[in-house]
Fold Carboxypeptidase regulatory-like domain-containing protein.
Amino acid sequence: MINELHHRHDPIPEDLNERVQFVLELEAELDARVARVSRAGELVSMRGDAELAVSQGDPASVTFDCETVTVMVTPRPSAPGGLRLDGWIGPEGIYEVELRSPEGSRRAATDESGRFALEGVPEGQMLQLVIRPEQALQRIGLPAVVVTPAVRL
């Protein structure tokens, strides 16, 4: 009876496996910094701070930051069921950007000003960015890896 009440009124989150996998992958990164959501613009919280959704299909920027790196992304509608993710990373420089989703990973590189774009981003899935600055930026104090919280765009 109690078990049935728990399943009905407090079910296990559907994305529990994704959250656990995020934590395990993060522990595998030795010098990773976890960025936090510092500004969610017009985003609407769905369940806690880790899940965000674009309200009414309008583009809204999300800003993540840690001690030394700031990442801003703006999702825009693209192909049916997909998004284009325009991003900017500061300080300026070359970064490798990895987008993780349940469908797999895709990569992009920034230009020298820290701008990047990813096409065909799945809409409505949990997504996570992994940012790796070039060696020159690491020598001036940037961490080797910055990981954003998983968000739903």
Q: What stands out?
A: Residues 15-152 form one domain.
